[in-house]
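Give me structure tokens for this 384-residue protein.
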Amino acid sequence: MEHDADVLPPATATFDYRPRTRIVFGVNAVERVGELAKELQGKTVLLVTDPGIVKAGHAERLTGLLRSAGLTVVCFEQVEENPSTSCVDKCVAVARSAPINLIIGLGGGSSMDTAKGCNFILTNGGRMQDYLGIGKAHSPMLPLIAIPTTGGTGSECQSFALITEEKTHQKMACGDPKAAAKIALLDPALTVSQPQRVTACSGIDAISHAVETAVTTRRTALSLVFSHAAFRLTINALPKVLANPNDIEARGQMLLGAAWAGMAIENSMLGAAHSAANPLTAHFGIVHGHAVGLMLPHVVRFNKAEPGTARAYSELAGEDAEQLPNLLSSLLNLAGLPASLRLCDVKESDLPMLASEAARQWTAQFNPRPVTSADFEMLFAQAF
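Here you go.
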């Protein structure tokens, strides 16, 4: 197959790739957590997780493994979905109650984002709002081990904490190279306990990361390696995991694919589908992965009007990308999720407000086709 030159970024497109996160992968790899924590000179560990992970028994298991290795463990177990600035502040208060020198984020993206957010404030002071953007942390940060229990966000391979501003409900992307996990511990066995809805939403989120990073204006030859590998793994594995939640091989493919997609985000950024999803979550409580899944097929159709982007989608999905939007739409049906905004209690009168907010989201600027508030209103109308 021949590749058109304008599908890929120019060979002169620059990047500076410095892997910040060591990846440890394998079934039951979590058994190594004590050893890995000690390699990072851990003595007193802050374990950041959520009530669902506690209920599944993962937090107790991890605490036991760490204590068996001679470490002291302090737990913050109240992580909330789409963590707010208030959630981070509560985590910081727990962290300050002991001489913490290592943080572990255990769970989905929310736990890892809370752990990163806590790390910013604990080591650099101030409030989360002070770290909006990139590179605002001036002092060293504590080592972080990220242990995902979902195959979704890829937060374990990113240097960003996504934290919701308490009053405005807007997501803030707070990034700094120092915030990246030192170790991402990927154990497919930990993901088997996910509820089906979490599996579906986090899986669709991972696929959306692969699709968006493959076409952004910031993509490079390096980021495309991660985008394409992530797409191949996740698009094939998600239907298998939904059909058989105990398929550990498919679980491993989802977990690895999500991590590769996280690496792609770190080197490429995201696009308009994520900009459109954030207001849906903020105002209507639509789970992030579901919200992105609702918008992504329409964004792909919109972007395909630009020939170079259409060819980039073809590179990702095969010779003919015409069916890519339909394939992405089918994932919602496969997962049993509502496939329109109308079915999610969004009113037609809400669309202008949603469009205005989407146009102000950070990732919109990286979309391969310029996208205005009027464009977003059209996209929301199509999803309605």
